[in-house]
Amino acid sequence: MTLRQLLAIGSLAVAPIVLSGQGKGVPPADLLKPLGASWPTYSGDYTGKRYSALKQINRTTVKNLTLAWVTRLNEGPGGPGFGGNRSPVIVGGEGTGPFVPGVGGDTNKSSALIVDGVIYISTPDNAWAIDARAGSERWHYYWKTRGGTHVGNRGMGMWNDYLYFETPDNYLVSLEAATGKERWHKVIADFNLQYFSTTAPVIVDNHVLVGTGNDLDAPGFLQSFDPVTGDLQWKFFTVPMNPGDPGVDTWPSLDAARHGGAQPWLPGAYDPDTRLYIFGTGNPTPAYTPGRGEGDNLFTCSLIAVNVDTGKMAWYFQTSPHDMHDWDSAQTPILIDGVIGGRKRKLVSTAARNGYFFTLDRVTGEHIVSSKYGLATNWVASIAKNGSLRRNPEKDPSIGGALVSPTAGGTINWEPPAYSPDTGLFYVSERNGYTLFYLTDVDPRGSMGLGGVEQVNVGSAGSYLTAIDYRSGKVVWRRPYPGPGNGGGGGLLATAGGLVFAGDAGGNVVAYDAATGVPLWHSRIGGVTAPPQTYMLDGRQYLLVAVNDMLYSFVLY
Amino acid sequence: MKTSNVFVAAALAGLTIGVHARASAPQQFPQQQRTPGDPAVIERGRTLYSVSCSACHGVDARGGQLGGPNLLRSQLVLMDQKGEQIVPVIQKGRPDKGMPPMPLSEEDSQAVATYLHSLLAIAGRQGSPPPSDSPPPNVLVGDGTAGQAFFTARCATCHSTTGDLQGIASRVTDAKALQNLWVSGGVTSGRGRGGRGRGSASGITATVTLPSGEKFDGRVRRYDDFIITLVLEDSVERTFRRDGDQPKVEIRDPLQGHRELLAILTEKDMHNVTAYLVTLK
What is the mean pLDDT of residues A397-414? Predict the structure, then answer.
């Protein structure tokens, strides 16, 4: 895409709606465009590809990248700024206790929104607007929490001039993008039931699609809220909740199903042609022990397509039937328009936490490919005709210990993959750790939540940047992340410059050749914690990389 | 008492892993945030529960054979603040679900509610139930004779029961710890939820050969695609820049054999070898 085309898109974006005169924001129609100069939603666009059309930074020029600015995200209500650019803190929230950095505190695991020269970024309980040219803070919103698990925040959603993010104590908070002033906050899940919310809302037209999370045997659900009023539009449960619901026969009882988990931990992808929002669900609960029969436990560990207007399920495909290792299949899937057997197909692909890769027809859910991409993955006994993985029960947690790869953390976890239409390759970070899973709670009723096991990591067959042919599921190449530990923290970015950006295991952000996996540029800024992102301003392409609470912006001058 | 011990333990655990001194409360859910109940009331509630409730709901409140649901994940119990939901259910029952009314006074019903809240308060992280008093199961499930045969065939090329492994079971007396040790080769780590376990380069050595032919041998401090840092024989660190194939780097991992073993080791063989190794007192 030329600079002129990019500018043209930029001006189109501004034209239709200027709501309150406060900046231009993200009109919903903008989200239908492929990812380019700005980054208006979690994955950049609806396809989940994390493929930017920008190519000023490319295989030839990448070696000239230089640091434009660096800044620190200062969580909480006070404290020193970085480089003297701290802005006054806007305080919201229902909590009454003192500020305490959380488990995920100081760690940025989010995808920023980058719109009109401003970076909107979030960590648990915190949101910022940062000048994309200067790195200076425009505003900082801080949410006083009631508590809950502070494991991470994946980012915000934007509808025209309004921002939306979720808090660990289960509020959907809407801010004015221009000022950071709160518009409203709404309860999205019951804190008493130990829900906690980490994911990034996804905006589709006048729907704010919101997932939540839970570890204590509570049912998962996806909700849609009105972007103006915050009123609930629909709520879709990911496990059977009533007698006769689809999938109820895959549980020993309705009570077991209603405590079955299947949390939508991460944002999905959206297909405007079918109006289907396609997202993944998490593990069944109890996660590691008996207590949920011998059935498949629908719709845990599944890819699910729901109609965004009705919240009704169109299809599902379960990627880990009767999971026994906490291998969520919540990974953001990627929509690919490809050719299978000489026929054009509308596809969706996902690399799951359980070490297997899947391609489906995204209109019907019809299965096309199931293949192993985790080198060491060892828990599958067989693959049924319909692509369904059947587990080897020897690998279930046991009293004497089961030796399993991947670890409970998975071959991949939340870190998003990428896809390049130029190479036809699906990129994912692949981790091949081994864990001994000991069953410590032998009660036949099963344990609760993630209890009842002890896990000891006993080695690894290495971690890789892995390129997969989405049509066959075959691994085309693996580039090792050398050294001990795992690479790929934070996730991936692919660009039309022929590059894939990733954090390696040694604390470098690396630009790899998208065709071969050969590293072409790196900077040792520390272990990358959020997906690298790119944007274009004043005719220059930037690369944004997060390391814990630090934010680095590289540019070509 | 029990509750505060758990809080102290949690706070200590936080201190050992974190940079910040963390109070635990803001991380927690309402059930762990409440003011603990009167110990005397909790104790009375425990007794009343065991008499009136445990037959259906289990001695640990995690559900029983007569069909009573697990109360520690019950929406009603989790939503209850101070008996306002639990007490009416105890006194009126839930006839639609087969639960009869229990002949408990308001005060006794309240005590049961307080007891249930005390259980929720000491539940483990990530939805785990409260800690159990029963000892963990014995991991020794294998056949030592078969394990010896496997050892002779697979392990004896590097290890000897009269050499490095002599008396191993006296040095490592816990069978689970022994199994973790021998399977991993000595490098284990706990679970990292994000799957980004930080490994260590311990034991790894390398030879770096410069284009000039000059060679450096040492222990690997760290390496990636771009640099390698060795600790040389005189304890001096030296870092070499890597550019593709130059300089030549040969990395030696003493655990390579164990890594290869992980790919082929079955649960049965593993359990058998452990059953054999525990005899090497």
Answer: 98
